[in-house]
Amino acid sequence: MKSWAVAALDLLYPALCPVCSTPLGAGRRDPLCAACWDAIPRIDPPFCDACGVPFTTLAPFTTVTPRAHGSAGLCGPCRTEPPVWDYARAAARYEGPLRDALHAFKFEKRRALARPLADLVLEQCGADLAAAVDALVPVPLGRARERERGFNQAQLITERLAATLGRRAKPGWLARVRATASQSDLGADERRANVRDAFVASASVAGRHVVVVDDVLTTGATAAECCRALRRAGARAVGVLSVARVV
Questions:
Q1: Which domain CATH number covers 132?
Q2: 145/214 same-domain check
Q3: Which residues in the chain come in under a pLDDT of 50?
Q4: One domain for residues 131 and 201
Q5: Number of separate domains in the chain
Q6: Are residues 55 and 147 in the same domain?
Q7: Dmax (CA) of the chain
Q8: Are residues 148 and 171 part of one domain?
Q9: Which is nearest to 128 in space by CA: 16, 49, 200?
Q10: Are 177 and 198 contacting, i.e. CB atoms less than 8 angstroms apart?
Q11: Among 11, 79, 177, 231, which is 20 to 30 Å from 147 by CA?
Q12: Parent domain of 10
């Protein structure tokens, strides 16, 4: 039970949702309010087996090729040029309250948002993670950017996911070996060039099933380069897990 002093402070300075600034009360999804949590645009099946893009966003521009019985199949781009990872999943679309929450998380240093963001991934993607996954590995930040921000947002999410799923978080298994420019203002080809050979994986990944974790999957350039590094180091299987993806 709260002390009278804490209760008084809650009345004078109520906690506010970092997305809509609504006072958090009953039904709160600390630190997101229930309304913002419910408004997050989840990605539900059917989606591409390889990249996780929802098929509802592709029609009528591409076709789906089914694979094994019970499989949703592959989208056109993945059928034409299979990705370097074995599978990729994202919890929701990078829009609306989720985009605002991720901005607050990274750029306003609202570290507590790691909790609901990881919970969102667990809600939408947790059941898809194979029992054979050996470790979750966050996309590493450059040293200067991590010092400026004070934390690596992917690592905070990874640690909560690993603790809840009973898997290992292994940030040391993937390292960024050179600084790169921000990807946000770059086109797809520029993003690929920007991160080429920017990561090196530990020999510890050899023979293991590793999942790369990031906050947002945009063109997939960074995740793909991380996966290439893990493949070169001998990873047996590589997946990608993100909170949001650009659709």
A1: 3.40.50
A2: yes
A3: 1, 5-12, 58-70
A4: yes
A5: 2
A6: yes
A7: 64
A8: yes
A9: 49
A10: yes
A11: 231
A12: 1-39
Beta bridge partners of 241: 89, 213
25 and 130: one domain? no
* Shared-domain flag, residues 220 and 109: yes
Residue 78 tokens read as 């993945």
pTM: 0.86
Q: Are 101 and 30 in contact (CB under 8 A)?
A: no
As a dihedral over the C-alpha atoms of residue 98, residue 100, residue 102, residue 107, rounded to 10 degrees, the angle is: 180
Q: At what angle do helices 221-232 and 188-195 cross, to 10 degrees?
A: 30
User: How long, in residues, is the chain?
Assistant: 247
> Would strands 174-176 and 199-201 be described as parallel, antiparallel, or unpaired?
antiparallel
Question: Tell me, what's the pLDDT at 217?
Answer: 95
116 lies in the same domain as 183: yes
* In a shared domain, residues 29 and 120: no
Cα distances from 189 to residues 83, 111, 219, in angstroms, run: 15, 32, 9
